[in-house]
């Protein structure tokens, strides 16, 4: 029987007691819940993610809403990213319990809903980072047009459209996820939250779409934007480092590091579906993606708790002077778009960005 994966966590179903929902043609997925070692490792990783990610993202949200006096477009995008990541981190406690007990105790609606929300976070994160990169592109390459092309009002509308879009394109994760019975090696029955595609073509469609739309296309836009930004900066004599560019570039790189393995496994699984069951090539590809799925899924979760750590390192120079408000000062220091106004050139705009922290302090 051909096998498939699912978004973020994947589960074994060696046999099923629900033939009404899943016929012999159902393409079932493989998972880590049948292995004591991998479930223990997965539960430990997700526990650490929960402990770091929830307070970290809540601190970002508090810093922006309560302490930041200048809310730029970049800050607004970071706020949305922190809300998406923080909400996902709150959901990890359900997966920790699932992995620890090796049994799904939360019912079918939660099974569908939790994995659906995981997918929306994946799309929202990469789309928000893409919007950050496009905004930097307009601000640096066309600084005099930023008010018209990338104003705060325009970006707010783009964010609203983005959220509607991500909730729509994540529907496949909602449709293909079900709770079903499974029997382990000791023939004990347990409930698993697993996906079951009725056709192998559904596997190919879902994971090809997920990788292309959720990674390849937006990441291509991001890379192209930064190539244009670097070319523009090289054309100027202004060589000072820009805080906002460095911070956003670090976010982009961090996201790529944690999500590239996951999407690589998606591609391998899709390629495996092109070969007949029992063929040598299919067996080799299955041996690559099946044991790797748990690890790459855990890395994907880690990406949502990495940004608070990244911001802390980026804003460490503010900690001694500003205390708990250090992250708010960091975000105020990245307000490149605030400094670009009518009559302001690229050099002046970049100068404002790289000295944003001092500008804030001078206002006191």
TrEMBL record:
Subcellular location as annotated: Cell membrane
Family statement drawn from the similarity comment of this UniProt entry: Belongs to the chemokine-like receptor (CMKLR) family.
UniProt KW keywords: Cell membrane, G-protein coupled receptor, Glycoprotein, Membrane, Phosphoprotein, Receptor, Transducer, Transmembrane, Transmembrane helix
A GO cellular component entry from the record: plasma membrane
GO biological process: inflammatory response; phospholipase C-activating G protein-coupled receptor signaling pathway; positive regulation of cytosolic calcium ion concentration
Pfam families named in the record: 7tm_1
Domain G-protein coupled receptors family 1 profile: 56-311
InterPro entries reported in the protein's UniProt record: Formyl_rcpt-rel, GPCR_Rhodpsn, GPCR_Rhodpsn_7TM, Leukotriene_B4_rcpt
Main localisation: membrane
PANTHER family: CHEMOTACTIC RECEPTOR, G-PROTEIN COUPLED RECEPTORS FAMILY 1 PROFILE DOMAIN-CONTAINING PROTEIN-RELATED
Membrane topology: Multi-pass membrane protein
UniProt protein name: G-protein coupled receptors family 1 profile domain-containing protein
Taxonomic lineage: Eukaryota, Metazoa, Chordata, Craniata, Vertebrata
One GO MF term: leukotriene receptor activity
Superkingdom per UniProt: Eukaryota
Transmembrane segments: 40-65, 77-100, 120-142, 154-176, 204-227, 247-265, 294-314
């Amino acid at each position: 029987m051909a096998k498939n994966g699912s978004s973020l966590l994947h589960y074994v179903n060696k046999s099923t007691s629900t033939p009404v929902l899943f016929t012999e043609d159902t393409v079932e997925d493989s998972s880590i819940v049948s292995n004591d070692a991998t479930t223990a490792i997965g539960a430990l990783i997700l526990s650490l993610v929960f402990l770091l990610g929830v307070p970290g993202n809540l601190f970002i949200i508090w810093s922006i809403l309560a302490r930041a006096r200048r809310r730029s477009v970049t800050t607004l995008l970071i706020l949305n990213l922190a809300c998406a990541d923080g909400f996902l981190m709150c959901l990890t406690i359900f997966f920790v319990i699932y992995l620890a007990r090796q049994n799904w105790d939360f019912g079918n609606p939660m099974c569908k809903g939790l994995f659906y929300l995981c997918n929306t976070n994946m799309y929202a994160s990469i789309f928000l980072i893409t919007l950050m990169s496009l905004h930097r592109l307009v601000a640096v390459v066309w600084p005099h047009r930023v008010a018209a092309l990338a104003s705060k009002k325009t970006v707010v509308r783009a964010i609203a459209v983005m959220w509607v879009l991500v909730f729509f394109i994540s529907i496949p994760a909602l449709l293909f996820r079900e709770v079903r019975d499974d029997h382990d090696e000791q023939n004990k029955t347990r409930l698993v939250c697993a996906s079951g595609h009725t056709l192998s073509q559904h596997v190919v469609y879902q994971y090809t779409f997920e990788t292309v739309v959720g990674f390849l296309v937006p990441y291509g836009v991001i890379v192209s934007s930064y190539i244009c930004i670097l070319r523009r900066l090289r054309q100027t004599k202004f060589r000072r480092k820009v805080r906002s560019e460095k911070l956003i570039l670090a976010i982009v790189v961090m996201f790529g590091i944690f999500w590239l393995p996951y999407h690589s496994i998606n591609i391998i699984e899709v390629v495996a579906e092109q070969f007949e069951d029992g063929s040598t090539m299919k067996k080799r590809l299955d041996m690559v993606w099946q044991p790797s799925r748990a690890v790459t899924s855990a890395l994907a979760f880690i990406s949502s708790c990495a940004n608070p750590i990244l911001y802390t390192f980026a804003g460490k120079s503010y900690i001694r002077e500003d205390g708990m408000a250090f992250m708010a000062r960091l975000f105020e220091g990245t307000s490149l778009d605030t400094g670009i106004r009518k009559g302001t050139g690229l050099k002046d705009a970049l100068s404002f960005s790289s000295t944003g922290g001092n500008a804030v302090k001078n206002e006191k």
